[in-house]
């Protein structure tokens, strides 16, 4: 993380010198290897299988094109951080996508739920694994999650049939 980006996240009264940056990898504690996950399905295959997924992927691509035109440094940094968080690492990408699914359901973000359900499917996560993850979200988030759970199950029905 650069000093300028770190300043963005620190309280106004805090200086960089008051915070230590994360430790560097050492021989005793090597940095985990991060790599792109291996997908079982392409986005095109998912779009052919599910109308919900097709509409979502097309809309997301169109809207992202507008964001990219803005050429915003902070948005690019955040997108990069998001991408890197879901790479294979100490935790498998499948686990991270299911964590994203749970958090998205608890936060009641339908776009995020669809995104993580699609990526989990592409990585080979089973329907039972997605449903169990949604059970965790329901317990954590409570009954307010139910409308989002219904829409998630509709997508899972199209994907897994």
Please supply descriptive tags for the structure shown above.
161 residues; mainly alpha; AhpD-like; 65% helix; 0% strand; disordered N terminus; AhpD_core; CMD-like; peroxidase
Notes on the protein architecture:
With 161 residues, the protein is mostly helical. The protein has one domain: AhpD-like (Up-down Bundle), CATH 1.20.1290. Helix content is 65%, strand content 0%. The protein contains eight helices and no strands. Helix 2 (43-49) crosses helix 3, helix 3 (51-70) packs across helix 6 (110-122) and helix 6 runs parallel beside helix 8. The longest helix has 20 residues, at 51-70.
Report the span from N to C terminus.
Answer: 43 Å
Estimate nothing, just give the exact number of structural domains: 1
Q: How much beta, percentage-wise?
A: under 5%
Taking all residues together, what is the mean pLDDT?
89
The assigned structural class equals: mainly alpha
CATH architecture: Up-down Bundle
Number of DSSP-assigned strands: 0
- Number of helical runs? 8
- Write down the secondary-structure element order: HHHHHHHH
The largest sheet, given as strand count, sense and whether it forms a barrel, is: none
Low-confidence stretches: 1-21
Name of the CATH first level: Mainly Alpha
Give the name of the CATH superfamily. Answer: AhpD-like
For the CA atoms, what is the radius of gyration? 18 Å
The percent of residues in helical segments reads 55-70%
- Indicate the CATH topology: AhpD-like
Coarse shape: globular
Protein name: Alkylhydroperoxidase AhpD
Domain Carboxymuconolactone decarboxylase-like: 76-152
Keywords: Oxidoreductase, Peroxidase
GO molecular function: peroxiredoxin activity
